[in-house]
User: Fold this.
Amino acid sequence: MTPEELVNIIKKHDRFVHGLVGGERAVLKGVKLKGLRLTNLNFQHAILSGIDFSGATLEGSDFRFADLFTANLEGANSSGAKFDRADLRGAKLQGAELQDASFSEADLRPGLIMGAAGENITDLSEACLDRANLEGAQLARACFQHASLKEAVLRRSTMTAANMHGADLSGADLEGARAESANFSGADLSGARLDKAQLRSANMRGAILAEASLSETDLMDARVSPGSRQLPVDLQRTLRDHALWVESNAGRGQRASLPAIDLSGLDMRAAYLSGADLSRARFTAAKLSHGLFVLADLSHADLSNADLRHADLAGANLSQADLSFADLRHANFKPVELKDQKGQPTGDLWPTKLNGADLRGANLIHVDLRQADTSDADFSDAKIDSINERKSH
Assistant:
């Protein structure tokens, strides 16, 4: 398509939108407009399915009600553009500049192309949507991984199973959003408004919740550490960076190194600290139930009187740790199967280490210690299931 032909189509389309004689709806299915400068143009109601706008400059353009099914806007600058009620199912928007853009009631659900093997997920990973308006948008299963949505408006949006891993949602408004089973792990939700949001079964491990508003928020079965909002912001950021480090297999974020830290009495339920260095840390009487401590270093840590019910301590190093009078019911102490650099199982098992640990008076009901290293551990007055009786002697 020549530039002259494109200009003619856009002019006729503008007349079509305004109901003028000689107007004609723009049909640009699959057309390649990569890298072009197309600012402040009117594409309302245009048929643009499969179009290639990658790397284009589309600032201020109007795509309201447009058909952008499986369109490619990867790396495009669409700041201030209007996509209200547009069909963006299966679109590619990775790394796009979408600051101040509007997607009110737009459809960003997966798109299924006839004859294709599977659905195309709408991908906004690493896009910038600061101050964007997504009120009432359909965002189910859309990918916003590591995107920036600072002060974005997502009120009443449907975000079921959306991937918000590592996204920056600081100051965002999610009031009344439906985000059941969404992934907010490692996301920054500091100062976000989550009032009346539906977050059932959402994954919020490692999310920053400092000064977030959670009035009437439905968090049933969500993987979240409710008490983390009360932790110092610097510590919350450390936990967020650690979650990113774990989820990316050390590709992003940073391992939490918190030796000798004092977290006594704090509410850290469902904490995400697998692989962290917590040696000599103090967790006296801390609430750690449902926490993930897989392969964590808790050697010489003080966990006396801590609530560790349902905690996952598989492969953790608890040698010489003080677990006296801790509640460990249903905790997992099974070994971890090691994997090679390609993520393939090696067949080798890494046991949980409790050698020399103080377990006096601990509650170990419904705990299996048969594969853990309990040499020289003290089980005096501990409550133990019959399967572990040999271990305690």
